[in-house]
Specification:
The chain is 58% helix and 13% strand. It contains 11 helices and 9 strands. Helix 7 packs parallel to helix 9, helix 8 packs antiparallel against helix 9 and helix 9 packs antiparallel against helix 11. The radius of gyration is 45 Å and the shape is rod-shaped. The protein starts with a helix and ends with a helix.
């Protein structure tokens, strides 16, 4: 299965809400034994719905997530996590497990493996906060979580998210106050879930390298809050992942533009060459082939990333819709902020993909036209060659016929001479014959015999050639 197909399956599962559980169990239920005659993938496909269980979330707490880009090389990250768990006296995580949650007393560690990234998360819950945020909110120095250990994971850290869950929102909460709390250049916020609960996003990176999110919980049920937290964290994760496609577009956009210009010039030159009787189409075809190779290289470099961006965008929109956001007076809304800031980048990705497709079609059409024109030139050359060969064959035939006539005349002349010598030995005077008349009378017969002999020789040669061709 191709990578883009795997990405599409993951996007579909995530968009449909897979892994959202409220039973509070530490691990997914053990898979029952396979029934005889059962389809091999049935259990695995069914277990996907329960693969990423999430905590009920009661009271205040925090969720800190580190995202590492690993592709399909996540073995080093798993080994690193298992070393940590062994030091804590916990069982290791199996390499085949896509999700695992381990309770470590004061917090829980959560490991998730996806198609191209691995996330390590820490969860604190059940803390006491009636209003506002905890006193140590967003304070990496006071946190009991092993943040330094997570940063040292042997993989490129793509994103770090710090989500604080507090009590009810303060009565007078202003954008200026939240800018200070979130340490960001701008803050977006909404109420959500048909209640007075609020979400505040920084969409920025603070001094400790985290993107901050604050949630004020106004009496939302624990299981519902758990699902909401998962949506919020995934929203922030896939927001940044979706923009990876824009980076690929910017990196290859200039190169694609140069190919477009070259192909446009080739198309113009092709039209001019076709109108000329002796147009040099072959030179243009070699240039077009080079441009087609460059375009295919760009496609191979960007196709997976653009497909992933499309899938991530779908997940992002699904998570935003699932939060049921309501306008919060005085704050810029989350949906509007992301729409204004991300839509141009995502539109650029779509436009780049369309440009790739259109340019590929243009190159294909130009190549077909060049090949057609080349075939026509070859056909004209073959026609001219056949005409020249036919003309030479006719000339050779006429020359051969002339030589044959001359040969008949020459042989007849010598034959008549021989008849004259023979006639001198005969008593022509006694018979009253003139030798000149004898020679003259012999001319038609000798000429006919010579012509007949040449004809038989030609027929024999033609028959031998036919036999060789048949063999």
């Amino acid at each position: 299965m191709r990578k883009d197909e795997v990405q599409g399956i993951e996007a579909h599962n995530a968009a449909s809400g897979e892994g959202i559980m409220s039973d509070g169990s530490a691990e997914p239920a053990e898979t029952p034994p396979t029934v005889s005659g059962e389809y091999a993938l049935r259990r695995m496909l069914s277990d996907e719905l329960h693969a990423r269980a999430f905590y009920d979330f009661d009271g205040a707490g925090r969720f800190v997530r580190f995202v590492f880009l690993t592709g399909d090389q996540d073995g080093a990250v798993l080994d690193y996590v298992n070393e940590f768990l062994a030091a804590e006296g916990c069982d290791p995580i199996d390499a085949h497990q896509k999700f695992q949650r381990v309770d470590l007393g004061a917090y829980a560690l959560r490991l998730e493996k996806h198609t191209e990234f691995v996330s390590i998360s820490f969860i604190e819950r059940g803390l006491n906060c009636i209003s506002g945020l905890l006193d140590d909110a967003f304070d990496a120095q006071k946190s009991v979580l092993p943040l330094a250990w997570a940063r040292a994971t042997p993989a490129p850290m793509f994103h770090a998210i710090w989500l604080e869950i507090g009590g009810k929102a303060p009565r007078r909460i202003t954008p200026e106050h939240m800018l200070e709390v979130m340490q960001a250049r701008s803050v977006t916020a909404n109420q959500f879930g048909d209640s007075a609960s609020q979400i505040h996003f920084a969409f920025d990176i603070d001094a400790d390298g985290f993107s901050r999110i604050a949630v004020f919980n106004d009496g939302i049920a624990p299981n519902r809050m758990g699902r909401t937290i998962q949506r919020i964290v995934e929203l922030e994760t896939y927001r940044l992942l979706a923009l990876l496609g824009f980076a690929a577009v910017r990196e290859n956009g200039g190169r694609l533009g140069r190919i477009e210009q070259t192909v446009a010039g080739l198309t113009t030159d092709l039209a001019a060459q076709i109108k000329q009787p002796g147009g040099q189409i072959q030179e243009l075809l070699s240039v077009l082939s080079a441009q087609a190779a460059d375009l295919e290289e760009i496609y191979s470099l960007t196709s997976y990333r653009l497909a992933a961006t499309k899938a991530y965008e779908a997940i992002l929109n699904d998570r935003i819709g699932g939060l049921r956001l309501v306008r919060l007076e005085g704050f810029q809304g989350i949906r509007g902020f992301l729409g204004r800031r991300m839509t141009p980048a995502l539109d650029s990705c779509r436009a780049f993909s369309e440009r790739l497709t259109r340019l590929s079609e243009r190159i294909t059409r130009a190549g077909d036209l060049m090949r057609t024109q080349t075939e026509m030139i070859i056909q004209r050359q073959n026609r001219d060659l056949l005409r020249s060969m036919n003309s030479r064959a006719r000339q050779q035939l006429r020359l051969q016929q002339t030589v044959e006539r001359l040969s008949v005349a020459a042989v007849t002349y010598y034959g008549v001479g021989l008849v004259g010598y023979l006639a001198q030995a005969l008593p022509l005077d006694v018979w009253g014959w003139d030798i000149k008349l004898v020679k003259a009378a012999a001319v038609p017969g000798i000429a006919f015999l010579v012509w007949l002999t040449i004809r038989e020789v030609k027929a024999g040669l033609t028959s031998d050639d036919d036999d060789k061709d048949a063999d």
